[in-house]
Write a structure and sequence with these properties.
The protein is an alpha+beta fold. It is about 25% helix and about 20% strand.
């Protein structure tokens, strides 16, 4: 699957990538192109955090980026909430 996030600024590109990744199965890939360098960093960070494999995508035009994301078996879009303190008696 290919996705062009050109013209979007953070946090929109990462949100769009997340929605697309949710539709893919293990082993499938998403190639993302865009023109906003902070979006590339944000997308890469998001993917590493959630267990997706990330590499350089096909050559992009000057001023653009291209990232290849592969859904791994360990990839998960689930978010974890830190457990609250077990000490609930106020001490």
């Amino acid at each position: 699957m290919e996705l062009d996030v050109s013209g979007l600024v953070c946090p929109q590109p990462t949100a769009v990538v997340r929605r697309c990744l949710a539709e893919l199965e293990t082993g499938e890939e998403l190639v993302v192109t865009g023109d906003y360098p902070p979006a590339e960093r944000s997308i890469r960070r998001f993917c590493y955090k959630h267990g997706f494999a990330v590499s350089e995508g096909p050559p992009a035009d000057e001023g653009e980026f291209s990232v290849r994301i592969v859904v791994t078996e360990s990839a998960s879009l689930e978010t974890t909430v830190p457990a609250e303190s077990a000490d609930t008696d106020g001490e």
